[in-house]
Amino acid sequence: MLNTCDTIKGKRRGKKRKTAAAESDPAISHSQPSADFARCYPAHCKPPSPATPEVETLRQFKAEWKRKTRGIPIDDTKRPKELLIVDLRDFEVYCSSHCERRAYELTSLHFLEVPMAKKLCFDGFVRLGKARYYIQGVPIQDSSVEGYGDEENPNVVTYVRSELAAHDPEYDIWYRLNEPSPHYKRFHDAFLWVAQMGKHVIDYMQSPRSLDSFRTDFHLWLMRRFARDLDFQRWHTTFRNQVDFRVAVNAYIEYFYHQAYNLPNHKLLLAQPLWSECMAKGMTAIKPRESAVKYTLATPEVHACFKHMYFGKQIQEKRPTTKVHMQQEQRKRRLGFAKGPLPTSVARPPDCQPYAGSPVRVGDVVALVPDTTDASVWRDTNWDWLAYVQGTETLENGTQRLAVLWIYRHHETNLSKAKYPFANEVFLSDNCNCTDGELRSTDIKGKYDIDWSPSVVGTNRFFVRQTYITQESSFVSVTEEHKTCMCKKENSSPIDNYRPGETVYLRKSLQKEEILDPVVVYKIYELKGLVLVRKLSRLGRDYATLAEKAHRSNVPPNEVVLTNQYEEVDVTRIQRRCFVRHVSRSDLLAGQVPFPYNLEGAGDLWIISMRLTLGRGGQNLEFLHALPPIMKQSPDIGWVKKLRGLSLFSGGGSLDRGLEDGGAVKFQTAVDSSANAIHTHRANARNAEKLRLYFGSVDALLDTALDGKSLKLVAQVGEVEFIAAGSPCPGFSALQPDYKNLKSLKNASHISTFCSFVDLYRPLYGILENVVNMASTRTGHENENVLSQVVACLVSMGYQVNQYIMDAWSYGSAQQRSRLIITIAAPGLTPMTQQWHTHSRPYEETSGKSLGKLPNGERFGEREHYPTPFPYVHASTASFGLPEIGNSIVQTCVPYPDHRNTSRNSLLDVVTRMPRD
């Protein structure tokens, strides 16, 4: 007799029953239909046997069952219907012919109710005792999994129930799934894996579980139960023996929820936090923050900078409370920001004082009128030019030859198209007249009094807080060192920058291309300007055959080998430092290369584990126990004290994670208005419980912060030391069809949000990223430029600011993705600079790009090209080793659960997108 078990809403609990062994049947033959469609698909309908109506097969099976059990019906309406199980084999499950989309297309059974109920059918051979038939187009009403609660057997038995069987008045009839048809096997194998995981997940959830429980604890629980079970081992191997199951749990969460919902203890199971953390059935673990704010909020200073822009009407001023304002001022004073002028102060132009026969002195700030040639280069020049006198020389005729550093007004820099709040702020530059035309005292109109690094900003005198670095168009805090140009400083030899034992890049030619190779500085000959270096060869590039001989496969491109080859090189061939870390044999073979040295060379980080030896049999490789004493081990990446971070428009948290991995930042607050994004951020957080996740508008958060409300999710002034933001890019995208529609204007206006939060919290550092097109000037708004206005706003606050283009392919990514990056640093701190490229594309394959033009017509922020240690990563290289998912119709990739389409197009959708030429 067949074993019976309880049925609860189509789900069974009990010990696993042995599946009836498949028996060969000469009457059954397998046709070869299209791999993606059922064999009954009209276009190639070739059933393996004549189909019998299901109603007839059920009648025959019930009669057979009665003969076998010799049962006598009992007239008792309170008695449950007797269970009748029929074996189903050589089956396939597919979308009903009545489906508007994807009719007859094969699908896995775990999609029956996910994400919503579907009309599925099955074909196959059914058998009970000696009675067997082929049935076709049978509508499925429900499925069932047996095995929950079994602590000894990790496997499951699966069933389906047809609509006709569900309404049988006498029996509770289920079809037990045996072996599928050959071309349906890939679908059914995927379902069985997911169903078995569902058993484990639900059994594990008898105690409260969160998504983080599946990071490592779930695996330990599984090992305690089934570590020695061969079936479990095969199941786990299919998942690449991973310890962290969070990705898989999230991928199949809707199926698991449906299973839990139909179990007797569903109230206990559905009360778990896991479901809302994975957003099952639209639930959320993070409470959305409602707000009545309709505009983009800005602090008064930021609003004044942006209100004239084409999106300015979308920005609304919001003043901080008195308490918050006092906290702001205290924060500014503590960090060295100058105090602004009083609101009642009336600015008047500074006075130019004639020399009246007095000599020009070092330290004077002089004024001169540009000549015709200069005026033709610097367009619309109708103001005095300013210069800092760094040296004078009295000539025989009594006049003075002046050595100067030019001082720029804001409209002579890359802020030329911006509205700047301080007309009397000027910037010392690193641009001198040493190689330009001679400047004499007779050319000077007079001098100005200047306030250098004032603690209080005045309105009647020029003041200088920052130096303008012309090559990068960046702004840095002015220092006494800046008052002498590089031409007049005592030039130090490049050889003074390096020490024995350090690893550096040596420029060399390889296949007619300039590249950088790491070497060890062994000895320095200062007088000769030479350096003796010990060569480090690349294992994969230079010794691939020896690596294979040493049973080394999948050698990373940033692994080097210590050699006994030395070379004397000119110091000018040394480009910069790089970092090499020793990795032990055990760690290397176990794949335990420490982060970030496992990123294949990103960040100029290399690993070394082997050395090259020479014996009777020729060259060989052997593992190093330690580095040679002279060679300096590269340090761990990270700082003991990390900056407390705030992330705006954080999305899924990728930028935040990258910055955290750099070692200097720990984000404590993240803000995003997308439910999917903020929950993704939570799922990937190292410690979600300590991360303040604000699910709502940045404007609502700013509104609350400016009001000084003490809420758990709102950081107070003084608690934020780093701000990262990636404001909505659609407002600036080149693909934007109408940049003046309301949504686009609102998106664009949020570029001011980063500035407002910086103004409020006054962090030590910050970074803003957006599309490069943000630097473009809109037609009809030629006197406005978003990039210039953002930089102007930040510089006016007193921040050091840099901006540049960063290309993904320059740092080891196969993506052709470029971003505009703006970085800020509080006064006196070391500014963030653009990272060195580690990967390069051929010059001819990369289009020229810059961030704009200066008033003198020169471009600034240009894309850089120079030798790098690696070529750029091809898409074929990045995608090598990805599992074969065919046309992805199975929609379940067990080893990599996220290798699935988020949406599936119908055949008609695909056809309409096919090229017609």
From TrEMBL:
GO MF entries: chromatin binding; DNA (cytosine-5-)-methyltransferase activity; DNA binding
Query: Which superkingdom does the taxonomy of this entry point to?
Result: Eukaryota
Q: Which segments show compositional bias classed as Basic residues?
A: 10-19
Q: Which UniProt keywords apply?
A: DNA-binding, Methyltransferase, Nucleus, S-adenosyl-L-methionine, Transferase
Indicate the enzyme's highest-level EC class: transferase
Please report the stretch or stretches of sequence annotated as the BAH domain: 358-479
Which biological processes are named by the entry's GO terms?
methylation; negative regulation of gene expression via chromosomal CpG island methylation
Gene Ontology terms, cellular component aspect?
A: nucleus
Which family is this protein grouped under? Belongs to the class I-like SAM-binding methyltransferase superfamily. C5-methyltransferase family.
Q: What is this protein called?
A: DNA (cytosine-5-)-methyltransferase
